[in-house]
Design goal:
Helix content: over 70%
Oligomer: single chain
Shape: flat
Structural class: mainly alpha
Low-confidence stretches: 312-316
Order of helices and strands: HHHHHHHHHHHH
Mean pLDDT: 85
Number of strands: 0
């Protein structure tokens, strides 16, 4: 790695740290403006005004916004996410839910990587042909459909009419989703279809570009088989961009995962996020918003660093 690349990486990491700080401010202030009173959420709707005022004072809600933000963000740095409306630590409340969501997204990404690489390269090798035309049209159509629409359609057809799989991804309390693989199929498929369409289209474009390089034609003129060209020249040229695409796709999965979990009643962060917004449980909403935003930002920065490193490698 060159000194220039290291300097660029250091600058990007410093920028990411600054953006994380700005993100924390936007998340805290934005969630604080949501309707709902954390004090009332803790006490219940039958609480009296005096009880609510006492609870606000006890929770520090009567303090200025800047002071509350500072206490919250320093708590984040210590690993303290605060307490939910029911008095339970937010970290304990979300740990199991985050694990379930990680299973869902992890399986999706694990399937996305080989599937998008195989499909994208296959389409790129046949650019301009019937297979490429039909495949590209299908991918473009799929990209335009939101995940929750695909999830609703799969639930209606595969689970409702055909009865092949359960419509609700219910996992018994205390058990792991991997112990019930049937409840993962439709949520994973809903997330995979859109991500696969996007990633495959991008990898196809990179494959077409790689095949137009002068040294590829030189290999063909020397009688090298197409499979050898693909393995020795095309895939090494495509993989750095493909890794970027997978990182961006993984970052984009966060929003879609929440919606898909709600459609299938999957016990991840989607359901608890919606219920927390409705009940005004702001510490939970703030923690989830910060977590999702930070993951998206870090994945984007990682993709940018890969682009910078591979770009400079090719140019030297």
């Amino acid at each position: 790695m060159t000194r220039r690349t290291l300097r660029h990486a250091s600058g990007r990491l410093a920028l990411a740290a600054g953006l994380l700080g700005a993100l924390s401010l936007v998340v805290y202030a934005g969630v604080d403006l949501l309707p709902g009173d954390p004090a009332t959420a803790r006490l219940g709707p039958s609480s009296t005004p005096d009880q609510a005022n006492q609870a606000r004072e006890r929770l520090g809600l009567d303090e200025p916004l800047a002071q509350r933000y500072w206490e919250w963000v320093t708590g984040l740095l210590r690993g303290d996410l605060g307490s939910s409306a029911n008095g339970m630590p937010v970290a304990d409340l979300l740990s199991g839910r985050l694990g379930n969501t990680a299973v869902l997204t992890g399986i999706t990404v694990a399937l996305l990587v080989p599937a998008s690489l195989a499909l994208g390269v296959s389409l790129g090798r046949r650019a301009g042909g019937r297979f490429d035309g039909a495949g590209s049209a299908a991918l473009l159509l799929t990209v335009a459909v939101p995940e929750f629409v695909i999830a609703s359609g799969l639930a209606l057809v595969v689970a409702g009419r055909l009865g092949w799989l359960p419509a609700a991804s219910l996992v018994p309390a205390g058990e792991h989703p991997l112990g019930h693989p049937e409840v993962l199929v439709l949520p994973v498929l809903s997330l995979l279809l859109v991500s696969l369409a996007y990633a495959s289209r991008m990898i196809r474009a990179q494959t077409v570009q790689a095949l137009r390089a002068p040294h590829i034609e030189f290999m063909r003129l020397n009688g090298m088989p197409e499979r050898a060209i693909l393995r020795q020249a095309v895939l090494p040229a495509v993989l750095p961009s493909a890794v970027q695409i997978w990182l961006i796709s993984a970052a984009g999965l966060m929003g879609g995962t929440v919606l898909v979990e709600i459609v299938f009643n999957y016990p991840g962060i989607g359901g608890i996020l919606v219920s927390s917004v409705r009940s005004g449980d702001l510490p939970v909403v703030q923690a989830l918003a910060m977590f999702m935003g930070a993951l998206t930002l870090l994945a984007t920065v990682a993709a940018d660093l890969i682009a910078a490193a591979t770009g400079r490698t090719r140019s030297t």
